[in-house]
Known about the structure:
Layout: H1 2-10, H2 13-36, H3 39-42, H4 47-55, H5 59-67, H6 73-86, H7 92-101, H8 103-111, H9 114-142, H10 148-203
Helix pairs in contact: 2-9, 2-10, 4-5, 5-6, 6-7, 8-10, 9-10
Amino acid sequence: MEFITAIFQKVPGVVLLIFFLIGIFSVAIFLERFSNVKKSKVLPKNWNQIKIYLLNGNFEAVLNLLRKEKRNFLARTLANILELYAKGEIDKAELRQMVEGETSFIYYELSKKISFLSVSVTISTFTGLLGTVMGLIEVFGAFSFSTPEGLKELSRGIATCLYSTLTGLILAIIIYFLYWLIKSRVDGVYAKVVKELEEMLELIR
């Protein structure tokens, strides 16, 4: 508790504001991504039923299910690709190529916004250094080195300035941990979605 009180008392106000904004946005992005990065959010609804229809060669039923999900990007994309295949406009190899081509966009959709967390790690560190430099400038301008008391005050002032660096490093570590959690979640969900699409392609005759 004393440490938190010291931060509010000794870290420059502008630096504290930047730390606060970075922290708020980072937590908001983490919670939003943690909530939405799920296999069930990426794959169309009734996915198992869709695979059963594909196994039976019932493309009309598959297209009907996919077209109902107008807000799902993958559902719309698969509907368009499978319709071309059902009409004979593309063959199995072209179908596979088109589906695999969409996986990069799926990864982009899953990982969007998390780059802010990566950037925030660097911004937090440099903001902490900025606060330290601002404090040092103030300390060197305010104290005289000609007396022992002045040197003691200078020591205490420098220690105070280092709170900015320490706070920035702590915030950077926390944000990096959040980034690592989300990045691992994105990679895991992406791998599962790609596997599901591969199984779907194997069902198509």
